[in-house]
Amino acid sequence: MHLYNIRERHASAAIILAGLAALLLPACCGRGTCPGARPVPPADAAVAANGDASSLPAVEPAEGPADAGAAPAEDAPPAPEAIVTTVPDIPEGPCPGESQCTVTLHPPAAGRTVRYVAEAATITLGLDDVLAEARERRETELLEFLEARSGGEDPIPLNEAALAGNRVPYVVAALLDDGKAAVREDRAGRDAETIVRETWDWIGCGGGCRQAGRQYRFAVPGEVFFRTTDLFEDSF
Q: pLDDT tens, 84-135?
């Protein structure tokens, strides 16, 4: 009999607890606070209560205060422009439309001369021819250098003028193209009757750099004794 009363009391307590849970759970879950439940947004809760979403006012997204620690936005710097430096196009010279040709040399016959020491070669030019070419090309520094050597010095060392600027080789190349020069092959100790004039081209930097110009040999095959860079392009 005593055991029966204990079981009856436990059953009554369980019934009472179940009733309390049924009363409390709807209240807390309506506020979206049930354990493991997803919180209900205010608008969704209002729709659930009213049954009509059109009656709700439009809700603008809230704008929070700017982050005081964030750096101010800056415009991105413009992309660097390509650097292109171009010397005038390579002169066709004695072989238009060809990359290689032979030039017959005509050494200066009389008058004062100008001497340019190249790689394994000595180039002798007529002073009048150099002056005429320098005037045509408006090479002011070279003209001033030559006019200052009016004391009868012969030959005039043109390499000293080259130290003042890099335009002297273009005057020398122009006269070589015309064959108005005497070219001595230093190693062989003899004057050349002809030289070979070629154009050269180089591309590098993954296609972003290009150089081109002229070069001169005594024969092909043979080493280059004089060279100019007539074109230079750099896109970086």
A: 444 455 666 677 667 889 999 999 988 899 999 998 999 999 999 999 999 9
106 and 189, same domain (yes or no): yes
* Cβ–Cβ under 8 Å, residues 123 and 227: no
- Helix axes 127-137 and 140-147, enclosed angle (nearest 10): 150
- CA 91/CA 72 separation, integer angstroms: 55
Find the domain containing 24 and state its range.
Answer: 2-48
Residues 6+ apart with CB under 8 A from 161: 141, 142, 145, 146, 168
At 97, the amino acid letter reads G
- Looking up tokens 């074109």 gives 231
231: left (phi over 0), alpha (psi -120 to 50) or beta: beta
Q: Please, what is the average pLDDT of the chain? A: 72
98 within some domain: yes
Domain count, the chain: 2
Please tell me the pTM assigned to this model. 0.59
With respect to residue 72, please indicate whether it lies within any of the assigned structural domains. Answer: no
